[in-house]
Amino acid sequence: MFTIRQICKKDNLSLSEVIRKVLIEIGVPKRGTAFSDLEVDFMFEAYNKKRSIYYVVENDGKIYGGAGISHLNEADYNICELQKMYFLPSIRGKGLGNQMIEKCLDFALDNKFKYCYIETLPYMKAAQKLYLKKGFSYIEGPIGNTGHTSCNVWLLKKLK
Question: For the domain 3-158, what is the CATH superfamily, name and number?
Answer without folding.
Answer: Gcn5-related N-acetyltransferase (GNAT) (3.40.630.30)
